[in-house]
Amino acid sequence: MSWLYDLQNDQRSGRKRLAALLDPDDLPTGRDWTRFMDGLNASPITDIFVGGSLLNARNVKDVLQSLRSHYDGRVTLFPGSPEQVTPGADAVLFLSLISGRNPDLLIGRHVESGIRIRKTGMDVIPTGYMLIGDGPLTTAAFMSNSLPIPTAKKEIAVATAVAGEMLGLSAMFLDAGSGAQRCVSPSTIQAVRDAVECPMIVGGGIDDAAGIRAAWQAGADLVVVGHAIESRPFQLDWLPHPESFVVQTNPAEERL
Q: Would you call 179 exposed, middle or buried from its count of C-beta atoms within 10 A (0-12, 13-18, 19+)?
């Protein structure tokens, strides 16, 4: 079964997922890499995303090959550029930066990478990528040459997600950006969740268990954690288990 099909099934059944975003430039090496992989396999992580806004040192292909030797779960490419698309993952997020107006990230880079992706045989997930936040400027916003949707403008986030779904995008990714000082607010997640039917991914600035649970509760189907894992690679016991999470309903709503 495809990665998207599994995520859609999890959405329908209310099961949540938790992804670790691994930037190849910021990963442990040598014995520490093996130790890190052992910790990930023992953690509640259900998915690994690989990619970054800016890569200098390590090759995505090398990281994917090593992941296949050490990690048992699903691996998805989250590419910051066409050069990061390489065989070895289960799926690739084919990102359209619908929150911005940079044509290169709406269609330009897709033309550059489309044939290459098709030849890999990976599952392709057409994804509406939405940067949300008020600053300071994140790497994703700077490298994409686009402004995030302001946190207070939930109606813009909703309208953008609805338009993306109407265009046929299969998932929405609400991202505050790696290392953001504030994550996407639960009220924004909830507003978008109420407006679209497709699976919703949320990441950026989430650095504790409460933030993960809040995103799940607001409607995220898959929560992505990057910087918090990179900064504490051998201390993953704080991550909450998706299988133990139950959406809390409002008693007043149950009576309606």
A: middle
Q: Where are the beta strands (DSSP E) in 108-215?
A: 123-131, 171-175, 200-203
Q: How confident is the model at residue 81 (pLDDT cuts 50, 70, 90)?
A: confident
How many other CB atoms sit within 10 Å of the CB of residue 245? 17
pLDDT for 102 beyond 50: yes
Chain center to CA of 240: 17
Residue 185: closest CA among 155, 232, 158, 152: 152
Domain segments of the chain as ranges = 3-238
User: Helix, strand or coil for residue 183?
Assistant: coil
Angle of CA points 118, 123, 125, to nearest 5°: 100
CA-based nearest residue to 241, from 42, 99, 54, 35: 42
Q: Across residues 110-114, what is the average pLDDT?
A: 94
Q: What are the Cα distances from residue 44, in Å, to 48, 174, 240, 242, 251?
A: 11, 22, 7, 7, 29
CB 190, CB 219: distance < 8 Å: yes
DSSP state of 84: G
CATH of the domain spanning 3-238: 3.20.20.390
pLDDT at 236: 97
| pLDDT tops 70 at residue 55 | no
The CA-atom distances, in angstroms, between 219 and each of 19, 83, 134, 189, 223 are 16, 32, 22, 6, 10
Summarize the confidence of residues 116-127 as an average pLDDT.
Answer: 95
Bridge partners (DSSP) listed for residue 235: none
| Residues 188-220 pLDDT 10s | 999 999 999 999 999 999 999 999 999 999 999
